Amino acid sequence: MTALNLHCYVHIPFCRTRCPYCDFFLVTRQDIQERFFRALHKETILRTAPFRGRKVKTLHFGGGTPSLVSSAYLEGWLETLGKQLSLEGTPEITLEANPEDLTPVTCREFVSLGINRLSLGVQSFSPEKLSVLGRKHTRDEAFGAVAVALEYFGNVSVDLICGVEGESLEVWEQDLQAVLATGVPHVSIYMLSVEKKTRLESLVRRGMVSLPDEQDQAAMYLKACELLEEKGFLHYEVSNFSKPGFFSLYNLGCWHRESYLGFGPSAHSFIVSSGKEIRSANVNSMLRYIASGGDAVVSSEIILEKERNDERIFLGLRLSSGLSLDELACYHRDSSFPDETLDRLREQGLVVLQDGVLALTRKGFLFADKVAEELMPS
Ligand code: SF4
Predict the structure, then answer these.
(1) Which of 65, 68, 101, 164 to mutate to test the pocket of ligand 1 (most atoms within 8 A of CB)?
(2) What distance in angstroms lies between residue 120's CA and the mean position of ligand 1's atoms?
(3) How far is the CA of 258 from the centre of ligand 1 (A)?
(4) Which ligand 1 atom is the nearest neighbour of the CA of 15?
(5) pLDDT digits 0-9 by tens, 134-158
(6) Which domains, from first to last, does the chain contain?
(7) Phi and psi dihedrals of 167, rounded to 5?
(8) How far apart are the C-alpha atoms of 46 and 295, rounded to whole Å?
(9) Residue nearest to atom 2 of ligand 1 (CA)
C-alpha cells in the first residue's frame, strides 16, 4: 500500500453516565480504562505500520468524553503514535471535553500534550434544557469552562443542541446570544434527533416526551444561521459556523474525503491509496476490543465508483463551498444531466448557481440530504 499523510481520530469511549439521547459507543465503567489504553497502544502500532513516518495532518480525540480520562493515558498514547507517525507541526490537535472536566489544571495538562483546540460539549446554557438533556454540568460551569478554555486555547468550539422538549424559539435565541457573548470562534449546532435504542426514543415512543415539530425546528435552525452570520461567523458546513481561520481542519479533511485512520472501538477509517478507496470499521464492543490484540477491524470494503460519486455529491453540498457543475456533470456521464431537477431546486430557493458552482441556500441546508439525493445519478 502506498503510504500517505493522514488525519487521525481516536475514540475514547468513556462517560460518567449515558445522556438519554446519545447512541455513541461508550461505557460508563471506569475501572477498565487501563486495559482499554493497553489495547489502544497495540492497535496503534499495528494499524500505523503501513504508514510509518508519515505526517499526521490533524488529530482528533473524540468520544465518549476524552476529558474524563487521566492525561497520563493520553500522553502515553501520543508517545506511541508519535513513534509511528510524525506529529511534528500538526496544525490541529483537538480534544472533545465536557464543561465539568475543565479547570486551569486540566487545561495546562492538555496544552502540555500539544492539544491546541478544544471542542466543548456545552449543548445549552439554560438550566432547564441541561436538565432535560440529562447533562451533568450547570449553566455556571458551562460559562466557566468556556472562559477557561478560551484563556488557554483560543481555538475553541462550542456544541449547542436545539429542539428539546418544551423549547421555544426564545429559549433557543437565549442560548445563541449566550454563546455569542462568550466570544468563541467556532460553534456547532445540532438538532436533537431521536436515535434508535436510546432512552429518548423509548420516551418518545411511549408519548412521554414530544419534540418541537419540523416547522419549529426549521425556525430554530434559521435563527441560528441569522444570528451567527450577523456576528461575523461563516456558515461553512450545514451544522458548523466559524470565524475566519477557525474552521475545523479535521472535519474539513473528512468532508473532502481525505484519508483518515480511526483508533478505538467503533472507530471508522477511510484510506485512499493507489486509486482505491477502502473504508473499514472497528469492533463496537469494549471486551472484544480489549481481546483483539490490536486487530480491531471487523469490516472492510472497497468503495465502488457509484458510491464514491454519491458521497462526493452528498458531502460537497454540505459545504458552503459547494459542488462545481463540471464535477456534477462528470458524475452523470453515464446518465443524463439533471437540468430539470436543478431548475426546480433553484425555483424552490434551495440552491444557487454562481460561477459554475452549485451551493445550498440557507433554506437548502435544511434539506441538504434530500437535495443531494435528487442530484445523485440514478
Ligand atoms: S457526554 Fe457526550 S458522548 Fe457521553 S453520553 Fe453524553 S452525549 Fe454521549
Answers:
(1) 65
(2) 11
(3) 27
(4) 4
(5) 999 999 999 999 999 999 999 999 9
(6) 6-254 (3.20.20.70), 306-375 (1.10.10.10)
(7) -80, 130
(8) 7
(9) 64
pTM of the full structure: 0.96
C-alpha–C-alpha distance, residues 264 and 74, integer Å:
13
Q: CB of 18 closer than 6 A to ligand 1?
A: yes
CA of 19 to the centre of ligand 1 (A): 6
What does pLDDT average to over the chain?
Answer: 96
pLDDT (mean) for 94-98: 98
**Lookup: cell for 109:** 495538562
d(C-alpha 280, C-alpha 270), whole Å: 7
The H-or-E segment that residue 159 falls in is: strand 156-162
Q: Which atom of ligand 1 is nearest to the CA of 21?
A: 7
Write the single-letter amino acid at 67. Answer: S
Average pLDDT over residues 198-226: 97
Lowest mean pLDDT segment, chosen from 204-208, 255-259, 332-336: 332-336
Rounded to the nearest angstrom, the distance between the alpha carbon of 22 and the centre of ligand 1 is 6
Determine whether 106 is exposed, middle or buried from the number of CB atoms within 10 Å of its CB (0-12, 13-18, 19+): middle
